[in-house]
Amino acid sequence: MPKDLQDFPRPPGDNGRGLHGSATPGWSGGDEGYDHWIRELVAMGIKWFKVLDHGGDSLPWCEKLLATGIFPIVRIIRTDPPPNDTPEPNPGHVGGAEEKTLQRLIAAGVHYFETNNEPNLTVEWKHNAMPGNAAECAKLVALNWLFDARLILSLGGLPGLPAIGGGGTMDLMGALVTLGRQDILLEGCWIAIHNHGGNRPLNFPNDPINRSGQALTTETHDHGAFTQWAWWNTAERRADTIEEVNAARANQTNPASTLQHDHACWREFEYYDALAMKYLGRAIPILSTAGGYQIGRRDDLRYPRVTPHAHRDLTVALFDFMQRQAPDFHFAALPWLAFDAGGYEPDAWYSPFWKDVLTHGSGGHNNFPTITVPKHGLGERLPVIDAVKAMPSLARRLPGMQPAPPMQPSITIQPERPAVPLPPVTEPARQQPPSPAWASWLRDQPPPEPKRVEPEIPPAPPPVARAEQIVPPPPVELGAPEELAPPETIAKPEGPARKEITAPAAPPVELPQPIALPLGEELEWDWRLDALNVSIEEAGAETGQAYWKLVRAVYQDPDEANNNHQIFYTVANERNEPIAYQKVWQGWADGETEAITNEHGETNIPLWVAFAPDRDERGPYAAWVDGLPSDRVVGLGLPSKRHVNFRLTWRRTTAR
User: Fold this and answer.
1) Which helix (H) or strand (E) element contains residue 52?
2) Is 482 among the domain residues?
3) Rounded (5°) CA angle 89-90-93
4) Is residue 507 a part of any domain in this protein?
5) What is the pTM of this model?
6) Which domain holds residue 122?
7) Model confidence at 482, in pLDDT bands (50, 70, 90)?
8) Final residue in a domain of this structure, among 363, 389, 415
């Protein structure tokens, strides 16, 4: 029976945040033991964890993870039958020994399994004997996987279509279609991907360097102590000059580039969703079981090498995207790699490798710069670890599912250099045009009398400009450090009626600028909210008591929302200055979730549940601000299942 996205199990409080464990099977917790690493994973808000199993050796670790509410994704390492008993790459499928392992793991509560890995690479084939015909090779892999998938489904597990090496073109879904067996993908299967970002930004291929050859400047060339290291050209044994980088950018400009042309990037999940839509006509789950960013990579010479700080900021950005904006089908992102083992020490988050290499030099190892960085400031764990621990953990809410309460951030960190707060990334969602009947009904509603609110004028406010909308923060100039900045634009998957959406660029770190909101005037209230049965529940603060006053409420219809479906929150103090790190809430009938504002006093939480305002129904969601009595906006939701936004602004005020 076909499964919908909501039929697949998720970990409690799922935030889409994961991590790939060890690169080799048999990992037993090292000197610290399993319990130490469980505490680390919980502190980082990890909900998914990739585990390798050889002969059932992962069972104790999986049991520990499951007891903590973390979902293991287990890759079963196949072995030849006795007397060989050696790991068996392609071609091949699971046998009797692996079936017993699967039974034990499923009985323990494991759901998600992989039985193959990057079959588009020669190294993953016996004796490197990969068939030369690409189509026949894909069909051979698909046939062997069909055997594994049927077995896993019969045992009660969920099999993953094998991950193809990043940017690879092997089309296993197309091969299943050729074999007439694609329907199995709808019976509880999912797609594994390895979307490594290399040294390309999160929004590649839509970033301005790739699209228009945006020039490198003296300011964006500067990476502090890492400047020479970031631009080091290992072939030339020296750092590239600004002129050389700009020549490469000009020569490799790709204004029409799409993920169909080049999907060797983090957004590769969109490419595989497009294939699912092509072959199946619907989405199935996609899990990034390896990928993300690794320090030291510089495959694309138009961009700087991934520094430890860029690695930190990019990872925080993609994790924030997963919990706030990821499309329904993209279940989890599990960056590579947690633990150093088997020659993969440069990729490990917990490793003394980079401290040693940056202090003493790499000797050319792994194409890394041979120069040292004396003032690197690294210890035996990467800065990404504390940065992820400091993130809030926001439970994702998907259709038909209710989240568990989100975790609180465990610690606050002071990074070596300030991390740039990351704006929300727009979601590559699928949506039909708004219904003409619904649109005409809303247009025909008579505008009600404006709501009048008694002015609230704080003592001696600073002068601010009148504005219809919030004045955006200043854009990032070319003089900002170019450390693989978080995305300015994330485009939706290529295909009919899919638009490109632009989010604000991450601003440089500086003192917050005042928000230009009118002081002491009536509430700015979008009359269309009345037609949707949206209303305000006043805070009820007593005279002299501080409270959160709603000062602006704007509705964005499906055209204006650009296929987004969010409540956007802005919070300011009495002087209209943005309040950073302020908790806000979204509630519904039997639960609630939170978010934390960025340095501009802004954050957002997605909407999922629909209602029918034309039948006088009321939306199920409410929104308010934490810490003081707060005006609440109630009756929010998706009118007639259409994707819309609500933009709400509160100001801290003293009741009179």
Assistant:
1) strand 48-53
2) no
3) 90
4) no
5) 0.66
6) 5-389
7) low
8) 389
